[in-house]
Amino acid sequence: MIELKNIGVRFSGRDVLKNISMVFKPGEIIGLVAPNGTGKSTLMNVIMNYLSPHSGQVVFNEKIGYTSKKNEIKIHQLISMMPDQSDLYNYLSGRDHLKIYCSMWNSDKQLIDQTIAALDMGSYINKKTGTYSLGMRQRLCFAMQIVSDTQMMLMDEVMNGLDPTQVEIISKILEKKKSEGKTIIVASHLLENLEKYADRIFFFKNGELELVSDLSPGFEQKELTSIRVEMLPETVHSTLVKEFPQLTIQILPNGVNLIDVKGAAPQEVTSIVAFLQTNEVTEFSLGKVTLLDLYSMYYQKQ
Fold this sequence. Notes:
Structural class: alpha/beta
CATH architecture of the largest domain: 3-Layer(aba) Sandwich
CATH class of the largest domain: Alpha Beta
Shape: globular
Radius of gyration: 23 Å
CATH superfamily of the largest domain: P-loop containing nucleotide triphosphate hydrolases
Number of strands: 14
């Protein structure tokens, strides 16, 4: 468990993190979403003690904090942060890197071959990493953290440079680690993917964390709440408002129209869909507000 207690970080007179208090529990995947430069990486660096906050503290498993070098060593046996591609040694093989991480955290050596197989890395794992493509290097960085097998794992843009198949494989591994009781924090710009596996998702803004389900009640529930129209001509929009005056329609900065049908009777939804089809509007979908939609709404003024 990771507990943030009134964490504050200030750079050049600006609050990057503003008195953040939050608990991240075992068996939970946390998603962090925000434009670059808004505090995601800063928060992760504070959790790892790579950066000391100006106020507050981080507590692990309800009892241990960064109060001494001895405690820091203990904590870093419990938590790991996914390495960056720049941390790789080009003259060592991928397997060498996995052995190093397994040794550093004294984890089960069987994890090495299991992880290689799970990530389909067998064809290149014994080659020097200097020969790896961007996607191969990214998979190796992820594999290094997985073989560390720590209770808590931090990942910043874990899906960078990966194709859809690889993204799906890593997502399934994350879900498996969650089932093992790991606490996993993922900062990502791949919103559709993050929405599939994260238990809680937070937006960063003005130095604070905002829980997405608080911004959009019912977001985590799989129910019909909106009709998402890609392109709605102005004339059709005007007629729609006249025919269905009770509707709330929101136009997002990306041009998408969200028609709120939360709590609407099935026949009313059917009537709206029929209206769109009659007016030759075909690019629409029924579902809930997506994370991408919420991102567009939340950050439109930034």
